[in-house]
């Protein structure tokens, strides 16, 4: 089993486990490797150092604590996303226009979410409209479990 350090075009970093380098290249070529954070299929392999097991027990004990912290962080992130999904309206691609309408008082203020290009997001920020860019995979559009 080969553990590879990967990165998407949005600079999200994650691990991928493959049978071999050839398996990775094959799956990447078929579009089967995507970023778990945003669903992007533009993936790069990052350089990584080989892992050496010198004394297995000490390393296993040390590895348990970071794993627990990662699990707690993932649970907190999932909870935050669930709260955001439950308390906002999905306006989709109309997000920039709807954010402006709310900001300028044309419609009643409410929590919204949707999609905006990098250019649109930057323009909103320059207008003084506070937004948070939170890349979510397409699977998160429905119920987040």
- Distance between the ends: 29 Å
Q: What fraction of residues sit in β-strands? A: 15-25%
Radius of gyration, taken over Cα atoms and rounded to an integer in Å:
20 Å
Q: What is the average per-residue confidence, as pLDDT, rounded to a whole number?
A: 84
Largest sheet: 3 strands, antiparallel
Query: Low-confidence segments, ≥5 residues, pLDDT <50?
Result: none
Helix content: 40-55%
* SS field, number of helical segments: 4
| Sheet with most strands: strand arrangement | 2-1-3
Features of this protein?
single chain, 145 residues, alpha+beta, 3-stranded antiparallel sheet, 4 helices, 5 strands, 17% strand, elongated
Describe the structure.
The longest helix is centred in the middle third of the chain and has 31 residues, at 56-86. This protein has 145 residues and is of the alpha+beta class. Helix 3 (95-103) links the parallel strand 4 (89-92) and strand 5 (112-114). The chain is 40% helix and 17% strand.
Topology, pairings included?
Elements: E1 2-8, E2 13-18, H1 21-29, E3 43-46, H2 56-86, E4 89-92, H3 95-103, E5 112-114, H4 118-126
Parallel strand pairs: 4-5
Antiparallel strand pairs: 1-2, 1-3
Short structural summary:
This protein is an alpha+beta fold and 145 residues long. The chain is 40% helix and 17% strand. The chain is elongated, with a radius of gyration of 20 Å.
């Amino acid at each position: 089993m080969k553990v590879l350090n990967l990165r998407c075009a949005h600079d999200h970093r994650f691990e991928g486990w493959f049978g071999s380098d050839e398996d990775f290249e094959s799956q990447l070529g078929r579009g089967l490797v995507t970023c778990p954070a945003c669903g992007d299929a533009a993936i790069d392999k990052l350089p990584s150092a080989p892992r050496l097991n010198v004394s297995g027990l000490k390393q296993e004990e040390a590895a348990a604590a970071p794993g627990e912290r990662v699990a707690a962080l993932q649970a907190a992130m999932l909870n935050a996303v669930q709260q955001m999904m439950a308390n906002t309206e999905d306006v989709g691609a109309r997000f920039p226009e709807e954010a402006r309408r709310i900001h300028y008082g044309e419609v009643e203020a409410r929590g919204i979410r949707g999609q905006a290009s990098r250019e649109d997001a930057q323009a909103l920020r320059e207008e003084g409209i506070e937004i948070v860019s939170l890349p979510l995979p397409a699977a998160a559009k429905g119920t987040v479990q």
